[in-house]
Amino acid sequence: MDFMIVAKTVGSLALVSGVLAVIISIADKVLNNYGQCKLDINQGQKQLTVEGGSSLLSTLAGQKIFIPSACGGKATCGLCKVQVLSGVGAGQVLPTEEPYLSEKERAENYRLSCQIKVKSDMQLLIPEELFNIREFICELVELEDMTYDIKRLRLKLPPGEEISFKAGQFVQLYSKPYGKVKEEVFRAYSISSKASEKDHLELLVRLVPDGLCTTWVHTALKVGDQARVSGPYGEFYLRGDCEELIMVAGGSGLAPIRSLVYDVIEKGLPHKMRFFFGANTVKDLYYMEEFARIEKDYPQFTFIPCVATPEAEANWQGETGFVTVALENQVDSGQGKEAYLCGSPGMLSACIRILKSKGFTSDTIFFDEF
Amino acid sequence: MKENPRDALLRIDMEAGRLIKDGFLGTDPRPLSEIISQDLDTLAALEVSHVILGEAMRQLTRKGMAAMGEEVDTGEYLVKTEEYMGWLGCPFKDARRAAKRNTRVTDKATGQQMRWSDLSIHLIEEHAFFQGKGSPFRLEPEALAAFLRLPRPDRPAEA
Amino acid sequence: MTPPISPWIIFLASIITSNMILANFLGMCSYLSVSTEYKTANGLGMAVTMVLVLTSALNWLVYEYVIVPLGLVYLQYIIFIMVIAALVQILEMAMDRFLPEMHAKLGIFLPLITVNCAILGATLFQVIRHYDFLQSVLFGLGSGLGWWLAIDMLAAMREKLAKVKLPPGVSGPALAFIITGVVAMAFIGFSGIFVIQ
User: Helix or strand or coil: residue B89?
Assistant: First the structure.
């Protein structure tokens, strides 16, 4: 074989590919850099330089600014709204954002930060309190079965760190990849522990069939594992501009109510409290002794568990039927009261209907629905 | 045939571990549009539309919801709904979401049971999507139509 | 050597009488796969046209000034493919930056333009027929526009037919082939107008 031909072939191919590779690299540098984008927050209060290309939600989280999200950026919770004054196509609200932005919000340039990408310099307005939100790598110190499908997690914050939250708020828990789930996922869970306890957090997680994060908690997570949380988030906390608090919860919705009850007691607030806890069967009840004890020690608090269809063998003596029945019968009017609700969408809409018929208004009903 | 780009984009979120643990496609190797069109062919042969099926499922679920989680007797069926907190987004990116509600229906005459979620009602009614074969929540169109006793002479078959 | 045909005749002929898809049946696979939605098909048609024009021009220059002088004619296929691949790579980056929605919709079919036989086909046709620079560029442009026209027609028809009740088994690829065949036969009617091959 003529050596010259081989050398010529190899040489020319190498030369051509070399030239092309150089041209492609130059194009890559020029085109693929969304480059560094400047984010101006709150008219100069904070200025960040970030890598473009990702969603605003995750870009800000990377800068340790945590915008609330219950659904992990899938546009089903609507909590991640941020005012974007410039830097993203104004007036071009995406179809995925539409259900969550009212006319007024669109006029004020609110966007869902999980749906817009950082592509150029942006000017943002972010509520002050969100700057208090931090991330904690906690250790799981207790994992207890409260019922057949609800687990209690007790998380210890890293030494020296504290979380200050208002009773009723939630944190985001980040699951790790497991089984078929290849990515980290985060979901919102209300804090069930006392607000006065600042170095620990407790969460109540109910297993949702096919749920990504709840399945991780119920199958893969073990005591001693590390779990990342961020928070606190949420608009569900005590206003207290009333004499009595009507609290309604179902399933794992008990979590923020427990925190609220202890908060009122520990702060010595004068409010009367009535907690209607709805469960499908007696098997679904938990924290029964604890709430009975609180009822005994603090007459301002009344505990009303309602079981929809009690099992015969359980010999249930308390209220039967759905929690709305007890609500209808025992709450006379909305006068001087505020309502705090936490549960599934169906339970919430049924309870809100009844409360509104009693005179409660949108200003006196507070709920968490994620 | 190769999957077209739009279906390929939808498929990403339908896989296991993206929106729900087991995903919507099971072990089905077929492209998304083929799954839907073959199920539509089955429905055409049965002379039932997916919109009518979805409507029938929704009516049963509503009866279960009205009973607030207790099992309710509708005459032909026993219906029980169960709810969890939160919302699930539709994987077809139409910005619709469904509550996490599961409905369990028992046919009083045959004892046969079927389960569906609020999201599957939307997927069937709006997108004619019964989920991929091998998915634990796939409802076979013939089985569903037979279970719901559709089409019926007193009810129109086509929407 | 250079055929004495006006470049403009070549341009028109490559759209109508020697349409890449309908007369030469080149570039079929992405044509069939991406023609289910009109907007996406339109985007791909535009991308293929851009690639065709640029590759025709570039490959002509590479052939005249690199391949022939250096005696690399035995390597021409590899070199043409490398140029096409580099161009498509750059086009993909530009699309991702400036038209991200279209880039997401086209997905894998954008890089697959590299192996779209219409692209290499156009280059090889111009080499075999000894077209000069202007003829090559207009041939590339016309081939691209013809490909774009064909995929737009098929996509428009498929979108309309998607809403119609068809006999079982016909919808999908079968229908695409039937339509393409019928349209190709229709285009044969143009064949007397210009002859360039």
Answer: strand
pTM surpassing 0.80? no
Burial class, C169, CB count within 10 angstroms (exposed 0-12 / middle 13-18 / buried 19+): exposed
**CB count in 10 Å sphere of residue A43:** 10
The torsion region of residue B142 among left (phi > 0), alpha (psi -120 to 50) and beta comes to alpha
What is the phi/psi pair of residue B103, to 5°? -115, 130
Contact criterion met (CB < 8 Å) for C96 and A13: no
pLDDT digits (tens, 9 = 90+) for C140-171: 999 999 999 999 999 999 988 877 878 877 87
Better-scored residue on pLDDT, A240 or A302: A302
Q: Which residues contact C60 (CB under 8 A, 6 or more apart)?
A: C126, C131, C133, C136, C137
Nearest-Cα distance to chain B for A322, in Å, is 6
- Set out the domains of chain A in order of their start, with CATH numbers: 36-130 (3.10.20.30), 133-233 (2.40.30.10), 244-368 (3.40.50.80)
Strand order in the sheet with A337-342: A319-320, A301-307, A272-279, A244-250, A337-342, A365-368
pLDDT of residue B156: 52
CA–CA separation, A105 vs A109, rounded Å? 6
> Does the distance separating the beta carbons of B89 and A74 come in below 8 Å?
yes
State which amino acid sits at residue A161.
Answer: E
Chain B: give the shortest CA distance to residue A69, in Å.
12
pLDDT in tens, A101-138: 888 888 888 999 998 888 888 899 998 888 888 999 99
Q: How confident is the model at residue B157 (pLDDT cuts 50, 70, 90)?
A: very low
Q: In chain A, what residues touch C58 (CB-CB under 8 Å)?
A: none
Sequence-distant (6+) residues with CB within 8 A of A313 are none
Model-level ipTM above the cut of 0.90: no
